[in-house]
UniProtKB/TrEMBL annotation:
Residues 21-274 form the DNA ligase D polymerase domain. Keywords: Ligase. GO terms for molecular function: DNA ligase (ATP) activity. Its EC number is 6.5.1.1. It comes from Bradyrhizobium sediminis. This is Non-homologous end-joining DNA ligase. The keyword Ligase applies. The keyword Ligase applies.
């Protein structure tokens, strides 16, 4: 059995709720069985909160300067922007998961691709960024996103972001590169935006959003990360990025319902809701063909002149 050195377990990470660093480590110890399948083989960007959610945080891609235990696997990846080799952690086992939690990694952020095929993600993700919109409005947009994907012959999964947003995933075979996947995600976003123009936007500029929900496709990029399913968030009430059944996603649903305590009970009762579906990939080419057909303007009926 691998021994992981754990320190300062009594340090308070959520002052209002009273949750400690030890609670974080205990959560990941109990949830390792459902967290690890979404982390294995993927490079990670560490988001470290060494003094809890009120004590400041920092991102760490390159761990070359850290003396890592022998059970922690890493991978060297050349950064496309600088040409430098960066050494990323790859979380393949429970010991590594607990080691990261001990470093103050409340959240687990990973790439959309695995080491064996770094250029090819195995899912597409659309991040619904809420701005000042209500969660009920975000739910409505998520459901419309699902309808668009279903109309194109695809299947999708949904989870809370753990904060105020929603993530829609589309499982894929890792044979398409990030540019191809992002282009299809953009097609989905544009169709949803066309259907819900007053509530959504595809503009990445804050000035262009005007309190609308941003359909963010940028997570579908080389080196980009998304918070993993079942990851804790450094947010009030120690919320979790919770995979849901689409039937659970209602206007009355609240992200605060899924937190450090409740998720352990939920998984014990329901298991991993994504387990079966995540292993059934969609055809990106089929989705692309259907979506392009849906994106075309409607043709006028025969015998009638087109309106100008």
């Amino acid at each position: 059995m691998i021994k992981v050195e754990l320190k300062h377990l009594d340090k308070i990470f959520w002052p209002k709720e009273g949750y400690s660093k030890g609670d974080v480590i205990q959560y990941y110890e109990r949830m390792a069985g459902v967290v690890l399948p979404y982390l294995r083989g993927r490079p990670m960007v560490l988001v470290r909160h060494p003094n809890g959610i009120k004590g400041g945080s920092f991102f760490q891609k390159n761990v070359a300067s850290i003396h890592l235990p022998s059970f922690v696997r890493t991978v060297k990846i050349r950064a496309k922007s600088t040409g430098r080799n960066l050494q990323y952690v790859v979380c393949n086992n429970k010991a590594t998961l607990l080691y990261l939690a001990n470093l103050g990694c409340i959240e687990m952020h990973c790439w959309g691709s695995r080491v064996r095929k770094l250029d090819c993600p195995d899912y597409m993700v659309i991040d619904l960024d809420p701005g000042r919109n209500t969660f009920a409005e975000i739910v409505a947009v998520a459901k419309e996103t699902r309808k668009v994907i279903a109309a194109a012959g695809g299947t999708s999964l949904v989870k809370t972001s753990g904060k105020r947003g929603i993530h829609v995933y589309v499982p894929l075979r890792p044979i398409y590169d990030f540019d191809e996947v992002r282009a299809v995600a953009r097609l989905v976003a544009e169709i949803v935006n066309r259907r819900m123009p007053k509530l959504t936007t595809v503009s990445p500029r804050l000035s262009g959003r005007k309190n609308r929900i941003f359909l963010d496709c940028a997570r579908n990029g080389f080196g980009q990360t998304t918070v993993a399913p079942y990851s804790l968030r450094a947010f009030a009430k120690a919320t979790v990025s919770a995979p849901l059944d689409w039937r659970e996603l209602t206007a009355g649903c609240s992200p605060a319902r899924y937190h450090l305590r409740s998720m352990v009970r939920r998984v014990r009762m329901k298991g991993d809701l994504w387990e079966a579906a995540i292993g059934k990939p969609n055809s990106l080419r089929k989705l692309e063909r259907s979506l392009k057909g849906m994106a075309l303007p409607a043709r006028p009926a025969k015998g009638r002149p087109a309106r100008k």
